[in-house]
């Protein structure tokens, strides 16, 4: 088994970096091969732009999808994209490790999606969703929040964290991954009052141990349900008899 851990945090001593290292250690202990990519450390460019595609299909106008596919067909994708594509293709498990910033993933991770989930090699009109290129592989979001679990609940002030993560999970499903229920550690803070530091640190230790234990049985980890193509009329609108798995894709109100 081979795993890819993608870290998106600018501080190498952060709790996110710690979780990435702990996950790698546990998976290697369980006889898996692990590749760790630190996007900030390697200076990954998150901007998809014309300069990444020197042999343009349309020099007069930049169309990201068409230029990605054209570069892929010419075997001239940028070196960092080619490397990450290779790591995705050989991985059985992909873990995205990141903090929730402004109710979303850090910009560098969104940019990674924009540049690495290449049109052509990673998806097209026939290879997506349950028929995607990554079918048979699993992906996990391992996420931290600064707010408490209560604040990040469905009725919390910060909003439902799982719902905030749904677009990213759907992006992974779009290219074929089976998406595991996200692992979220709440209340990861700095600058705490002295009397709160010990309880905070003990909670993070417990969360880390729990994460490692769950990773030993990652194949039994619960999977996020998504609608398959047959659930949509003409491939577009959710059928009346289909189950709605998320408020993002739901049945219209009767009224």
UniProtKB/TrEMBL annotation:
Q: What class of enzyme is it?
A: oxidoreductase
Please list the GO terms describing molecular function: oxidoreductase activity
Q: Which UniProt keywords apply?
A: Oxidoreductase
Q: Return the EC number.
A: 1.-.-.-, 1.6.99.-
Any Pfam family from its record, for instance, is Flavodoxin_2
Q: Which domain of life is it from?
A: Bacteria
**Domain Flavodoxin-like fold: residue ranges:** 1-204
PANTHER family for the chain: NAD P H OXIDOREDUCTASE-RELATED, NAD(P)H DEHYDROGENASE [QUINONE] 1 ISOFORM 1
- Which family does the UniProt entry place this protein in? Belongs to the NAD(P)H dehydrogenase (quinone) family.
From the Swiss-Prot or TrEMBL record, give the protein name.
NAD(P)H-dependent oxidoreductase
